[in-house]
Amino acid sequence: MKGSVCMKKKCLACISTLKYKQVSNVEVVCSSTLKYKQASNVEVVCSSTLKYNQVSNVEVVCSSTLKYNQASNVEVVCSSTLKYKQVSNVEVVCSSTLKYKQASNVEVVCSSTLKYKQASNVEVVCSSTRKYKRASNVEVVCSSALKYNQASNVEVVCSSTLKYKQVSNVEVVCSSTLKYKQASNVEVVCSSTLKYKQASNVEVVCSSTLKYKQASNVEVVCSSTRKYKQASNVEVVCSSALKYNQASNVEVVCSSTLKYKQVSNVEVVCSSTLKYNQVSNVEVVCSSTLKYKQVSNVEVVCSSTLKYNQVSNVEVVCSSTLKYKQVSNVEVVCSSTLKYKQASNVEVVCSSTLKYNQVSNVEVVCSSTLKYKRVSNVEVVCSSTLKYKQASNVEVVCSSTLKYKQASNVEVVCSSTLKYKQASNVEVVCSSTLKYKQASNVEVVCSSTLKYKQVSNVEVVCSSTLKYKQASNVEVVCSSTLKYKQASNVEVVCSSTRKYKQASNVEVVCSSALKYNQASNVEVVCSSTLKYKQVSNVEVVCSSTLKYNQVSNVEVVCSSTLKYKQASNVEVVCSSTLKYKQASNVEVVCSSTLKYNQVSNVEVVCSSYS
């Protein structure tokens, strides 16, 4: 082979041919070694061994090595091994190495390995490395590996590294890896690193890794950037992100930024984020920013975020920002987020922002979210926002949602919003819904809305419905509406109905309505009915109505009926009506009847009226 052909192809192939004629059970063993040197230092070495057994194991083994050196230092080395067995495992192994150096220091290295098995796992492995240096220190390195398995997992792996240095110390490094599997999980992995150095020592480093699998979408991405300036304005910037989703979604994310200026305007900025979710999702996130200016407008800015999940997923997140200016407007800004996960899935999230300006408007903003999940599905969610300004408009906003699910279907939902402004319009709004279901059909539903304004129109509205069913048919229903206005028309309306049935037929029904107006017509209306039956036929019925007007006519009306039957036929009936008016006409009416029958026919009847 001539040197020009090797220069064009940059690879040398070794081809061997085996011709075999069968007789009966002939065994052939042949080993040969070929050494070949051409003009100056071209050398070929090839050794092969052939073993043939007809019955089961036909085997061919061939190994060859080729070394080629051209004018100065071009060298090609190729070695291959072929193993062939007829029955099941046909195997071919070929490894080659190519080293190529051009004028000064251009070098190319390529090594490949081929493994071939016919029956099930056909595999091809090829790895190559190429180093290229041009004028002064430009260098390219590329290495690739190819693995091929026929049955299910066709895989290609290719990794390359590029290093590039320009005039002084500009350097670019890029490495990539490609993995390809045919049947289910196609995967691509690419990692690159960029290093750049300018006049003094400005450096940029960026590395990224991408893994892609088709079937179960496993993905890993990592990118980082670093900037560093030393002499006057020292600056470091590093951001990296790694995402990995496998069976148990392992995720690592780390991003950091550091900016530091010393002499006049001292500035430090550092933000870092680490997220790591393995079996027990350990997560740490910290970001901080510090800005400090000394001479006239002293300013300090610090923002930090901490997320921490340990073995049992305990997570804490805190981010704060501090801005401080000395002369006139001192301002403090702090935002924090707390995520806390305990043994299994208990999570607490709290984020707060504090802004403080000294002269006029002190402002505090805090928003928090609480998520709590216990063993199975107990969940508590609470989010609140607090805004506070000192001079005029102090405002508090809190909204919370509580979801609680216990073993089977116990659920509690509560959402509330609180708005508070100090000077004029203080407002509180809270709406909550409570749903509670126990083992069979115990249900509690409560929804309430609270609106509160301080100066003139203070209003409270609460509407709740309670349904409670116990073991068999115990039911409690209560719905209430509360409206409250302070200045003139304060009104409260509440209506509730309660039905209670115990073991067999004990029933309690109570409905009440409350209307309250502050200025003149305060009115309360409550009516209730009680039906009670004990073991056999003991019955109590009581209904009462209460009307209350504040100024003149306070009225109470209550009527009750009692029926009582004992063992055989003892019966007591008592009904009473009470009317009560405060000013002049208090009236009480009560009538009762007693019937008593003994063993034979003794009967006692007594009725009274007053």
Low-confidence stretches: 1-35, 39-66, 68-562, 564-610
Tell me the span between the first and last alpha carbons.
135 Å
Average pLDDT number = 42
Oligomer: single chain
Number of helices: 1
Strand content: over 45%
Which structural class fits the helix and strand makeup? mainly beta
Number of strands: 36
Computed over alpha carbons, the radius of gyration is 44 Å
Largest sheet: number of strands, sense, barrel closure = 18 strands, antiparallel
Apparent shape: elongated
Question: In words, what does this structure look like?
Answer:
The chain has one helix at residues 3-9; strands at 29-37, 43-52, 58-69, 75-85, 91-101, 107-117, 124-133, 139-148, 154-165, 171-179, 187-197, 203-212, 219-223, 226-229, 235-243, 251-261, 267-277, 283-291, 331-341, 345-357, 362-373, 381-389, 395-405, 411-421, 428-437, 443-451, 461-469, 475-483, 491-501, 507-517, 523-533, 539-549, 554-565, 571-581, 587-597, 603-609. It is built from one helix and 36 strands. The chain has an 18-stranded antiparallel β-sheet that branches. A ten-stranded antiparallel β-sheet has the order 19-20-21-22-23-24-25-26-27-28, with no helix packed on it. An eight-stranded antiparallel β-sheet has the order 29-30-31-32-33-34-35-36, with no helix packed on it. The chain is elongated. The relative contact order is 0.03. Mean pLDDT is 42; it is low at 1-35, 39-66, 68-562 and 564-610. Among the domains are: 1-10 and 28-132; 360-519, no CATH class; 522-610, no CATH class.
